[in-house]
Amino acid sequence: MSTPVPGLRSPADKVGGVIYFGRMIDKIRLHHGGTLPPDYVPNLGKGFDARCIQLLRVSYPALVERVTQNGSSDEELLQWALTEGRRPDDDEIEIWNEFMRKRGWKDSGSETLTKRKLECGFAERADIETFFQFIDADEGRL
User: Are the C-beta atoms of residues 74 and 25 closer than 8 Å to each other?
Assistant: First the structure.
């Protein structure tokens, strides 16, 4: 199990109704400030970050630049992304949120989730059925 990372919120937390976006912003800020644990760095802009970027259709480097240059709030950063990229409608956001919240539960990610649970000593944890639950458990929130 990893230790909690101060300033890194749960992937289930929402900014402006969009799940995961705040966590991605946290990782960018922590990395820029030199406090993101090294094992998180190789996946910056990949995995769930890449999926979020794809939803918003902004470039990850442009988001990093925006986050690190001007001290904007999470909500201001989301509004920038919605203006710079695209603005999903309410139905698209609901579909995104539910897909991400359930990722790993009886889908193509299930095998990877099972493997990660085994690697981290969570194989017997029946309460971990999704990647979000895995992340929260791994970071000491669940």
Answer: yes
* Mean pLDDT within 60-67: 97
Residue with tokens 């970027």: 53
Q: Give the Cα separation of 11 and 114 in Å (integer).
A: 19
* Angstrom distances, CA of residue 111 to CA of 93, 106, 124, 129: 26, 9, 15, 11
In sequence order, the 6+-apart residues with CB closer than 8 A to the CB of 92 are 55
Mean pLDDT rounded to a whole number for the chain: 95
H/E stretch holding 19 reads strand 18-19
H helix and E strand count, the chain: 7, 2
- Predicted confidence at residue 71, as pLDDT, reads 78
Task: With a cut of 60, say whether residue 105 has pLDDT above it.
Answer: yes
The domain limits of the chain are: 1-102, 104-142
Q: How far apart are CA 108 and CA 122, in angstroms?
A: 20
Phi, psi of 64 (to 5 degrees): -60, -45
